[in-house]
Every structure is written in C-alpha cells, then in structure tokens.
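Worked example

This section walks through a single chain of length 416. The input is the sequence exactly as stored; nothing has been trimmed or padded.
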Amino acid sequence: MSEPTASRRKAALVFIFLVVLIDVLAFGLIIPVLPHLVDQFTGSKAQAALWIGVFGTVFAAVQFICSPIQGALSDRYGRRPVILLSCLGLGLDFVIMALAPTLWWLLVARVFSGMFSASFTTANAYVADIIAPEQRAKSYGMIGAAFGVGFTIGPVLGGWLGEIDLRLPFWFAAGLALLNFCYGLFVLPESLPRESRATRFDWAATRPHAAIVLIARYPSIVGLAAVVFIANLAHYVYPSVFVLFADVRYGWGPWQVGWVLFLVGVCSVIVNVAVVGRAVKAFGERRALILGLGCGVAGFVVYAFAPQGWIFLLGLPVSALWAIAAPASQALITRQVDKDMQGRIQGALMSLVSVAGIIAPISFASVFGLFIGERAPVEFPGAPWMLAAVLLATAALIAWRYAPRAQANDALAEPG
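Given that input, the structure is written out below as tokens.
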C-alpha cells in the first residue's frame, strides 16, 4: 500500500480534527439541555440530578470498556473503517436521543453514544501513523484545540438552540456527525498499511483491566501513563464543581458561568494552536510536559484562594498553559511504542481517562460539600481546586522522574 501524499495527509488531518471537534461539540451541545430533558421525564429536579449523575457514570464506564476495543479493531482492520463507523454511529445515536420518548430510551442512547464517541482512541493512533515523531506534539496540539473549540462553542450554541426546542441540539449534533461521515468517505485515506496491522484481533487485550496489563508490558510508558491518568483526574474538577463553586464563592449565575467557560475555551484554543508547537520546539517534549503541569498547579492555586471573581479570571491564562502537557505526553508515549501497537496503547490510555471520569466527579463533589457544609473543618470552597493542584503537582513529579530524557526519533522500547 503506498504512502499517502502530502495533500492527502493534510486532508486526513483536517478530517481527524473535525472528528474530534464534532465529538466534543456534540457533547457540549447537550450540556445545557440534557438536564432539562431529563427533568421533563422525571418531573423532579432532585430525581433529574440523580439521573444526570447516572448518565455521566454510565457514559464514562462505557467509554472505559469500548476504547480498547476500538483501538484493537483499528490495529487489526485499519483506522479508516473504525473512524467512519464511529462517526456514522454517533450521528444515528443522536437521532435516537432526539426522538427518545422515555428516560430509559434516553439512557440506552447514552450508552451507545459512549460506545461510538470513543473515536479519540483511533484518532490519536491515526496521527501517530502519518506524522513523524518530532512533529506529533504539534499535531496533538491541534487535536487539543478541537477540544477547546468544541467546549467553547458547544454549550453556547446548545443553550441558544435549546431555547427554541430542547431536542433541537440533538438534531443539530446528529446532522454534524452524519455530514462528517459523508465527508470522510471521500477524503480519509487508510493510514495503517496491511503489512503493519496486527495479525489477529486479540480479545484478551480488550478486557477493561487489560489496559493496565498492556501498559505494564511497556515499562518506558508506565510513568507517562500515570501522568495522563492523574492529569485527567484533576481536569474533572471543572465539570464536577465549577458551576456550584462560582455560585457559592462569587454569586455567579448561568450567564456569567457561560462566559467564563467561553474564556476558558478561547484560552485553550490559543495555547493549543499558537503555543504548544513553539513550547515543545523550544524546551523539548519532557520539559514542555513538566512546564505545562506546573502552570496547571499555579492556575488551580489561584482559583482556590481568589477572594473575588476578577482575581479568579487572572488564573485562566495561567491554567490554560497546562494544555502544553497533553500533546507533549502523547508525543513521548508514541515514541516508545511500535506502530502495530499504537491503537491498543491509545485505547488503554483512553480507558484510564474513562476511569478518571468515573471516580473524579463524586470525589470533587464530596470535597466541595465537606468544606462548605455545617460540619466543615474550615470553610474553604476552593478545596476542590487545591485537591486538583495537588494531583497535578504529583503528576509533575512523576513526569520529572519517569519521562524519557532522550528523544531519539526512531528508538522504540521493546515490551518487558
């Protein structure tokens, strides 16, 4: 199979960017309307809150199970069919959600949404297939920018559409995903040659606990995998407590919170597009990783202790520099793994991220409740942010100890 031309690679990268963008945008679109739709089914805001928690846990659990399956499928059968099937499935799933007549129907649809939106696994492996090792951090930065754009535009657009009809954001998300599928049919080449594919589909490697087992086979990435897990654990402080924290600490309502989230997204996009590539080039992947984590620590400390809202806002550009860390860690990991294992390793990493998504919300919410409640040892609404800062500081120490210092382009670690 011939290598894709430069123009084809560029078109493929644009499509991968759009895959991630639409997945995240679709998720952001329904953030402001899903609770209201659930409330219509339950008739009780308390019950609706409980079910939204169930939805979040189920979604993360399904991604935990399905991410390694998608990765293994892409290693065996190629990236293109897996990515296109994910786009098609996600589009059809949002149609089902838009038509859901009952709460249980909506919950089942969320299960399928978790299955198909695990395409980040294959998208990361695709980038590793077609981009030279020294250029991967910049490309992963562009994928990070897709996250920022999606979470910047999604909630604002979803809220506007939801004012017209609660189900309209689901239809809009479905249309985007299905258009993306049609676009990919024409522009997305296969990135993994047949001779580089796994010889068989390894079901053992797709078991949930196999993520840890697979990563353990590569001692050179164990520390980096721990960094990825801890950093994602810390990142869940935003969706877990931000809205409640802003209300308790500064009296911000939905309008103010929406614009703050917009600023968070803008800062993230700027860093991923304009800073990541330059930072990695200037400092190297290892130092860029540690620098990014350090900026995240500093930003979270500002959040924790900011007595006024404008001081909190000063922490936004500082914490946004944390975005340097993710592409740097991805680039370091892909250097240590053979080509036919990239999909499975990315699937294993996404499984770790999903585990973080399962355990983090209740952890941060519990800490927040403890430090604002009547039995609080000390009144400290910023406690969840301090917990997140401690987690990132721990990740930075692990990165300093275990991130590879040498960056030989073609050096691959053999599994231990």
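What to look for: The longest helix spans residues 254-305.
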